[in-house]
Amino acid sequence: xxxxxxxxxxxxxxxxxxxxxxxxxxxxxxxxxxxxxxxxxxxxxxxxxxxxxxxxxxxxxxxxxxxxxxxxxxxxxxxxxxxxxxxxxxxxxxxxxxxxxxxxxxxxxxxxxxxxxxxxxxxxxxxxxxxxxxxxxxxxxxxxxxxxxxxxxxxxxxxxxxxxxxxxxxxxxxxxxxxxxxxxxxxxxxxxxxxxxxxxxxxxxxxxxxxxxxxxxxxxxxxxxxxxxxxxxxxxxxxxxxxxxxxxxxxxxxxxxxxxxxxxxxxxxxxxxxxxxxxxxxxxxxxxxxxxxxxxxxxxxxxxxxxxxxxxxxxxxxxxxxxxx
Length: 325
Ligand SMILES: [Zn+2]
Fold this sequence. Notes:
alpha/beta; 55% helix; 325 residues; single chain; binds zinc ion
């Protein structure tokens, strides 16, 4: 477990430790799979490391237990897609009120804290206001804006930025033995999220899914109204998938626009150059611009409780048609 590209964040947390001023509550924000949990675990390791300086050593029994999720004093509340309920927060609080079993610090990592119900968040507020001695809480979230301001104001907020493509590419090659061509593609597709690139390296289904969504896009452009509306209805049933698909389509249309307008900015979908060139010859620059703008506004509107199915229908019907070209 090595923090890459976000060293400033761990340095900031560990500086406090060196000066005897450990932040009792930190909030780490950033895109999914960007490295929030890795930073949180590194902090937990540093608090309980029994090895030599600099901490965390990464090799002592405490560091190893934390890395493998087996340290009795480090708890992670992590259930993607499920809300975090008040009962879980109360259980955690009972746990945190005891003194550490093995380590010096009890650390609780509450992942994706936007999952917390208002009751759960308010219950946690008590611990944030009066943290027990030797307890550190680390919350993670995609954005700070979606949390209760009372929670955010009691945490030290660390905002992780996407990493550059070259840092991700180099890391995939040096730390994960990736082939340079594959590293190049995954780094470009990752949008700065190293965790995503590492997952995609070990799990071919991630790239397969992306290929399927891009194939669907190409095939829908040659289809009529009925098929497009059926696809919109189908997709609208899975809100998480809608975001994933729209993000991929946006990347695709940005590439089409870049090629259609003869820009020298690097494209994202490196492995599909031929298809991109073909498509950029089939649509006008204006059409590509409209699709980029429309994908952006549809994505933004989804966060504001619009009728998803209707929004997708409008989007699908405005896809340029390649049926008779
Ligand atoms: Zn250690």
